[in-house]
Amino acid sequence: MAFIASFRNVLSTLEHACIQRQIHVTAVTARVQAGRYRVTIKRDRPLTYEMANPPYQIAHRKSWNSWNTSNVTGGNRSSETAVDDMFIRRFITGTWHSLFMSEVIIKRQHNIIRIAGIVRRSISSRKMYFLIGYCEELLSFWLQCPVKLELQTVQSKNDVIYKYI
Fold first, then answer.
1. Three-state SS at 71
2. What is the pLDDT of residues 95-153, one digit of tens each?
3. 115 has which bridge partners?
């Protein structure tokens, strides 16, 4: 009981200090706006599943766009990995021009880099197989490790829409 009384005494002192000095003590995350999409009046903005989940759900419902262990404390090549990921995303976006319907997901496992995503079926399968082999071969040569593309295809843009806001 003595502990609770002393805790209440400390709280009242803190409240008094905050009122006297006009210190704002609300939670830091109360006004976070990054990564959230504003609702439109007509609710006609399409969102994919990745976009529909708020940022605080990344570890629970949403997956990270880069899977690697170089960002942990003492990890090797953390800056090089970030530059490599940026290069991979730009190369894939430029090579598969307006064909990727989702974000580029990069998964690193040991020395293998797996690149995943959803692609629209607007080109022939022959061209798609060529682009897959082209990307795998060039990225493997440049990054000096095996690269594997894991793609899913959809018929149209409407197939990846999760909800409208």
1. coil
2. 998 888 888 888 888 789 999 989 999 899 999 999 999 999 999 999 999 999 999 98
3. 106, 149
Task: Compute the distance between CA of residue 15 and CA of residue 25 in angstroms, rounded to an integer.
Answer: 10
pLDDT of amino acid 29 = 58
- Domain residue extents for the chain: 46-164
**At residue 17, does pLDDT exceed 80?**
no
Residues 6+ apart with CB under 8 A from 14: none
Separation between Cα atoms, residue 48 and residue 20, nearest integer Å: 48
pTM over the 0.70 mark: no
Cβ–Cβ under 8 Å, residues 98 and 119: no
User: Which CATH code fits 46-164?
Assistant: 3.30.300.20
| Among 122, 124, 87, CA closest to 106 | 87
The whole-angstrom separation of Cα 146 and Cα 143 is: 8
DSSP assigned state of 24? -
Q: Are 106 and 113 in contact (CB under 8 A)?
A: yes
